[in-house]
Amino acid sequence: MTVDATTPSGKNHQSSGSLIYDPKVRGIFYQAVTLIVLALVIYWVIDNTVENLRRANIASGFGFLNGRAGFDPGQKLIAFTSDSTYGRALIVGFTNTMLVAITGIITATIIGFIVGIGRMSHNWLISRLSLAYVELFRNIPPLLVIFFWYSGVLAVLPQARDAISLPFTTYLSNRGLAFPSPVFGEWAFLTFLALIVAIVASVLLARWSNKRQMATGQTFPLLRSIAGLVIGLPLLVFLLTGAPLTFDYPIAGKFNLTGGSVIGPEFMSLFLALSFYTAAFIAEIVRAGIRGVSKGQTEAAHALGIRPSLTTRLVVVPQAMRIIIPPLTSQYLNLTKNSSLAIAVGYADLVALGGTILNQTGQSIEIVTIWIIVYLSLSLLTSVFMNWFNAKMALVER
Amino acid sequence: MSLSQTNFVRQEMLPQEPAPLSARGAISWIRQNLVATPKDAVLTILALFLLAWFVPPAVDWLFIKAAWFGTDRSVCATVAQGGVQPDGWSGACWAFVGSKFEQFLFGRYPVDERWRPMVVGVLFVILLVPMLMPKLPHKGINAILLFGVLPVFSFILLPGGLFGLPFVETALWGGLMVTLILSFVGIAVSLPLGIVLALGRRSKMPVIKMLCTMFIEIVRGIPLITVLFMASVMLPLFLPQGVTFDKFLRALIGVSMFASAYMAEVVRGGLQAIPKGQYEGADSLGLSFWQKMNLIVLPQALKLVIPGIVNTFIGLFKDTSLVSIIGMFDLLGIVRLNFSDANWASAVTPMTGLVFAGFIFWLFCFGMSRYSGFMERMLDKGHKR
What we know:
Chain A is an alpha+beta fold. Chain A has 13 helices and eight strands.
């Protein structure tokens, strides 16, 4: 027993079993088995699918996208009639998804940062209120929040004829929020042109001022000049061209509001719910980011005699952002994916319209493929951005 | 030298003086925490305004004006709407929740057979509570009962059709029962499957690695609702003619698959946080792959990611509400179904039902997050920096 290891039998054993116990051989064997099983399963699935499709008389392929849709998606950002094609309906759905995602992301970020900073406040009341907000919304399904706004709040608002009137001649009713829609005059495009020019000029100005500060140490009142440029120039052009902007005001009629633009309750409930729900998560991310910057950094900045406001702007925020942005982007992605809950309240997003088309044509594989491609590309784009950001922001160490 | 000539020397300790009034008591607390600076004072006043604007109406609506008892919609409707309440009344309709309570728990499960989910529920609580208390012994037996025997038992008892029990089809299941079954199965499946996927993604075998990565990234990249659509629309297409899956089972598959992908990423984070020396140490001891994982790596890795795991569980629990979109009646679904009950339809019913459902969801999720915090402190062996 004691000398087994040195006996030739031990060596023999090793060489005879080497093929079975060789991790490389084993690895290849396992992978081959996996591939064969997978291929068999895929073959079986495809065989069944072809058989099922043939029986249901469904022609596979994306030809159906040119078919006449015959329905009206309600809210739409691009022209769409019931004579338009299924393909165009999906594009409408995609634009609607992006609309609710982008507006939701902006609002969620604002609320999230306010609540997240509130959580860090020395003021007991503010920090408790923020905590209550976070704990409330983090622990409730987003779908329930959507229904809360949709059937709990917006559906029980008064009828359109006794709509609640809000400032700036906006009206709130169970048909949604009616607000004055801007009507642009002939020369209005010049104002937009001026805005673009101002933004480009601001970027150039910022570059120049940064370069000068690096070279000479002289600072330039950048923030004020950019604000002046971006607001002042378009305003000047707007006034010079004779203020080419009028509003189409909603007018309360006997049964309905006419004129103006209307945001439907579907969009509003989805937008509000996604913003409030995601804001709770963003608040926690912001708090973690700010807490992640060690106190020594602030103290060192103070020791160098940097003013508190500059310390926050130049020392704390850039380091906190390095921690905040990666999880923040994944929250943005979550919000975009959660916007698919639109189907529950009938907001015409990509999934809801896809579902309608799926029911009408039975092209389930194609529709699901389109969904997967669209959402995967969105998340791929996000991760490309995140990798770029990480590479740019990573700590440069010795 | 007599004592009387020396200066005064105190022989005994004086009783301790209380802290000055400015540093103790309610007033000082208010000064330090509410009005420390002018900015703080402004914020406090704003917050008080917010509370005054929000809390009294909420309490009024939820409790004071609420209709607690009644048998039909008349107690929750104003005179103009055909009820007994005065004009302009608005309050929670708890009578609605009270009369529908059993339905919210069991859905449309036949009334005579409701003892079956009740038995399962009681057994679940009896087995779960000792499982959650770290001090109690026999965790192994407990786990086998909870994750092995109870599911089999429920699988026989709930649908029935055996031993003289009448068959109850899953289309009749609903309410909190469905929510809990979906989350329990999702949790029980997603953790092991997630661990396997995470190990696969870190495997050195390229084929396994690629397959696991593809599964994880695709499922994580798309919304749950599309996964559920896939499970409910495409699964029947993939199976041979005549083989049908129960709708409930399809939802279970979708939810479990979705949660496993997220779980895999959480577990992978833990695996990556284990220093390479631990893997190499296990290898040098001659442990096999599974021994290495089970005895050395996973216990450490899983402990590191408990918060992430519980967050995934909470997410899963919240996500089960989505099955109401594909036509199943979980807690949220059954509450919404009852909005259209002519006997109870009123302006305040939807809000009351949603507040009730939200409270139940909140209770479970908040409980889970609190328990995870407790476990984290329990298992913290002081390795943390």
